[in-house]
Amino acid sequence: MTSDALPQEWRTWIQENLARGCAAEGMAQLMCKDGGFTLAVAQAAIARVAAALASSSDQPAQGTQLIARPNIDTSCNLLNVDGQEIKVLMALDQPRVVLLANVLSSQECDDLCRYTQDRLSPSPVIDAVAGSHALHAHRTSRGAMLQRAETELIGRIEARLAALVDWPVERGEGMQVLRYETGHEYRPHFDWFDASQSGPRKHLEHGGQRLASIVMYLNDVADGGGTSFPAVGLQTQPSKGSAVFFCNTDPFGVPDKLSLHAGMPVGSGVKMIATKWLRERQY
After folding, report:
1. 28 burial via Cβ count (<10 Å: 0-12, 13-18, 19+)
2. I want to staple 255 with a disulfide (CB 3.0 to 4.6 A). Which of 24, 66, 169, 192 is the partner?
3. Interval 175-212: pLDDT, tens
4. Are strands 227-229 and 142-145 parallel, antiparallel or unpaired?
């Protein structure tokens, strides 16, 4: 069924619930559960009704219009990006999570680790009140922030990622390389900025929301160090050259609480990763 063929009773239900201020994400889930619709049809139907309401009132309801956001084509198992044959290993729709192999070559991983080894310092978090960077016991790694296209290697990787997720390089923050030693972790957290808190709200002023994240694994880890999504019972394991992509908002731009994730403690050895955050607007 397409959104155009939606029964009138469901159209009325959508309109009434939007008028009540219900979140589009929750409405789409109910339509899938109670009406047997696919998520894509439910989202498209809600967006159509919301657009009609906005047209009549000139005031669109927040979180009811589909937005453009980074994504990966997972309709096939092998993606040729920038001459790199990237394998799709796993894809989840909600939250949107895609696990990929061979995003970086072994040499690129080694070069990135070597380039940043003398620049690592304790990794901070964003203070909820001031918006400044502060150290916190929940994050025990060391890291280095890189500028976009700081070197030919970094520029090449950024261009590949932009093509992979169909999102302009200019809408991405600079990469961050992180080193986790035995016992180090990053406890469950969100990458999206909470607009209800004064600190994170300041970061929305420059580039808007963090719509998606890419975590690239730069080495093999024998024990621990996975990326966990506890809200959905999913965990990806580090493998050199692989990456996990995930969206931080739902298709309507609403921060997705299912995107809660954590860097699990390293059981032995060292874990090296590179993280890329993708913004709503030019950063």
Report:
1. buried
2. 192
3. 999 999 999 999 999 999 998 888 888 899 999 999 99
4. unpaired
Cα of 199 vs its chain's centroid, Å: 20
Burial zone of 101 (CB within 10 Å; 0-12 exposed, 13-18 middle, 19+ buried): middle
Dmax over CA atoms of the chain, in Å, equals 63
**Cα–Cα separations (whole angstroms), residue 8 to 5, 14, 24:** 9, 10, 18
Nearest of 202, 199, 200 to residue 191 by alpha carbon: 200
pLDDT value at residue 134? 62
SS3 of 28, please?
Answer: helix
Nearest one of 77, 222, 200 to 131, comparing CA atoms: 200
Contacts of 256 (CB under 8 A, 6+ apart): 25, 95, 192, 247, 248, 249, 250
Name the one residue in this structure whose structure tokens are 């990794």: 123
The per-residue DSSP string of 172-216 comes to: BPPPEEEEEETT--EEEE-SS--TTSHHHHHHTTTT--EEEEEEE
